[in-house]
Amino acid sequence: IQIQQTVLDEAWWCAAFEAIEQHCHDLKLTDFEYDTLAAVWLFHQHVVDVAILEVGLGGRLDATNVWDADFALITNIGLDHTEWLGDTRESIAYEKSGIMRRGQTVICGDVNPPKAIAEQATQCGAILYQYGKDYHHDLNTVPESDPLDDQLDTKKRETWSTYLPQTRYHALPKPALHGKMQYHNAANAIMLLHCATEQHRLTINPQHITQGLQTVSLKGRLQWVQQQPDVYMDVAHNTDAVEELANFLKNQKKTGKTRAIFSILADKDVQSVVACITPQIDEWHVAPLNHSRAMPIEKITTTLQNQAALPPCYCYNNLQEALKIVLDVSEPHDKVVIFGSFLVVSSLTSHF
């Protein structure tokens, strides 16, 4: 939880949990429900103008869906948490559509959205904007004298544009976040901000967009945490996310070995996850997670061994041991990628 880009200290958290306890009494809540209530309580205490809540699982039955959102953004619909949300993109889209509200704006950023998105928007009376139909983006190179670029620095450089209903943002800077998918993510966010401005909920101009793209940071999302060797941390834990990570590595200049530090939870499709990124990995370094939902290390190594072209695989007692050895053996021109779970990233964040 951040307010004005500041992480609140423990005193605020304690106050939030005390307030929740005073009202919940014997009602049993999950950890995520506690965190969600605490976040909203803290937002109220600080009298924020805008509150952003990230759905935890699905949408329809998620704790964040207690509140009626003025704007909702559904990004991509992938096969994850299928035991809870269903095993098709249509069923998962139905669950995610549960955050829509009558008369309110919903944006869907999926490039090939399941039919359930439009169907549920029509049924509940939400105002739907879909990527590829109502807005899109593309990459371009802007010359020095481009007459359309009167807002930004006009040096010749790689830029991109996003096209919205009745307007566009031209010659936008590259997002500070790593990965080609960040252009698409940014287009979704800009579309939401545009709708908020059109409805006079916010006042956003091109300078705001530029500043946001250039300064945005997000822990654990293809986060570059060290140089020589380059170390990246990514909470990617399903096939869609790991494919993006694999594409990022594929597009990087190959200067040395790429070592993966990896573990994953038992309910994930480890076979698909491993298969899509193995061509970009020179060595696997795996360790068990200290969690009740952790996938046994034996299953992880067996899955790796079943790959057609298996890079060397090393096992450790814990992730900290794996990281120490990997950093010791890596050369300055090598890469280290740490991924597979939020738990993998959180357990190693303090090292950097």
Tag the structure with descriptive keywords.
Protein-Tyrosine Phosphatase, Chain A, 352 residues, single chain, alpha/beta, 36% helix, globular, three-stranded parallel sheet, six-stranded mixed sheet
Layout of SSEs?
Elements: E1 2-3, E2 6-7, H1 10-24, H2 31-45, E3 71-74, H3 82-85, H4 89-96, E4 105-108, H5 115-124, E5 127-130, E6 136-142, E7 157-164, E8 167-172, H6 181-198, H7 206-215, E9 223-226, E10 230-234, H8 239-251, E11 258-262, H9 270-277, E12 283-286, H10 297-305, E13 313-315, H11 319-329, E14 335-339, H12 342-348
Parallel strand pairs: 3-4, 4-5, 10-14, 11-12, 11-14, 12-13
Antiparallel strand pairs: 1-2, 6-7, 7-8, 9-10
What's the short story on this structure?
This protein is α/β, with parallel strands linked by helices and 352 residues long.
Q: Give the CA-based shape.
A: globular
Written as H for each helix and E for each strand, in order along the chain, the element string is EEHHEHHEHEEEEHHEEHEHEHEHEH
* Arithmetic mean of pLDDT: 91
| Spatial strand arrangement across the major sheet | 9-10-14-11-12-13
CATH architecture of the domain at 223-351: Alpha-Beta Complex
> Under CATH, the topology of the domain at 223-351 is which?
Protein-Tyrosine Phosphatase, Chain A
- For the CA atoms, what is the radius of gyration? 22 Å
Structural features, described:
The protein is α/β, with parallel strands linked by helices. Among the domains are: 136-215, no CATH class; 223-351, Mur ligase, C-terminal domain (Protein-Tyrosine Phosphatase, Chain A, Alpha-Beta Complex), CATH 3.90.190.20. The chain is built from 12 helices and 14 strands. It has helices at 10-24, 31-45, 82-85, 89-96, 115-124, 181-198, 206-215, 239-251, 270-277, 297-305, 319-329, 342-348, and strands at residues 2-3, 6-7, 71-74, 105-108, 127-130, 136-142, 157-164, 167-172, 223-226, 230-234, 258-262, 283-286, 313-315, 335-339. The strands form 4 sheets. A 6-stranded mixed beta sheet has the order 9-10-14-11-12-13, sandwiched between helices. The chain has a 3-stranded parallel beta sheet with strand order 3-4-5, with helices on both faces. Helix 10 links the parallel strand 12 and strand 13. Helix 1 (10-24) packs across helix 2, helix 4 packs parallel to helix 5 and helix 8 runs parallel beside helix 9. The relative contact order is 0.08. Mean pLDDT is 91; it is low at 142-156.
